[in-house]
Design goal:
Elements (H helix, E strand, L loop, with lengths): L1 H47 L20 E4 L4 E3 L7 E7 L4 H18 L5 E8 L3 H11 L5 E4 L5 H4 L8 E5 L5 E6 L3 H16 L1
Length: 204
């Protein structure tokens, strides 16, 4: 009888140790899962909370240009990532922007006209949150012939700069999809450097 009692006590001890071990393994797994989730959440938060620079850009030279699809005023659509292999210039603009109206004729004469026939260059003006007829009228008023696209809600603009930040802005993207120049407002010297960089890249 005493031997049976000892056997029962030993069995209970073994069972207790097994339960503790199982609980410990479960706790470790849950701890690992929680740590992984916390890390992922922190990474998502960091990505979502990019701080704009001094002129409102969320991107910088060297970054891969955020991808998007834009509908042009002629009804066609262009996806940025399909333009790999080409030098791409984006101009963020709007009809109410006086600086845009000042800059756009220079974009037309100094950048678009000399290069519009090239298959390795693309220029797209992206109009910030205005209806189609307004954008078409804007093109006529500024006498530009390069393609203009629609950006309802400024969602494309918000990929590149703070949604509330101002325009005009130019983004130059190399054939690999990386940003190589960013401009803000219209400064003749900065604009000349943009033109020079485009010419340099197209001569390669």
């Amino acid at each position: 009888m005493k031997q049976f009692k000892y056997m029962m006590m030993a069995a209970a001890l073994v069972c207790g140790l097994a339960t503790l071990l199982a609980c410990g393994q479960k706790s470790q797994r849950e701890g690992d899962k929680t740590a992984a989730e916390t890390s992922a959440q922190a990474e998502d938060k960091t990505t979502a909370e990019v701080t704009p620079d001094s002129v409102g850009y969320l991107v910088k030279v060297g970054d891969m240009a955020p991808d998007f699809t834009v509908e042009l005023t002629d009804g066609s659509k262009v996806t940025l990532s399909t333009l790999r292999g080409k030098l791409v210039m984006l101009q963020f603009t709007a009809s109410w922007c006086g600086v845009c109206r000042k800059e756009m004729p220079f974009i037309e004469s100094d950048i678009w006209q000399p290069n519009k026939e090239r298959k390795d260059f693309v220029l797209i003006g992206i109009d910030r949150d205005e209806p189609l007829e307004k954008v078409k009228e804007f093109a006529q008023q500024t006498k530009v012939t390069y393609p203009l696209g629609l950006d309802p809600g400024a969602d494309i603009f918000a990929l590149y700069a703070d949604r509330q930040a101002g325009i005009t802005r130019n983004v130059l993207i190399d054939p690999d999809g990386r940003i190589i120049k960013l401009t803000r407002l219209y400064n003749p010297e900065e604009f000349a450097s943009l033109v020079a960089l485009i010419n340099e890249r197209l001569e390669k």
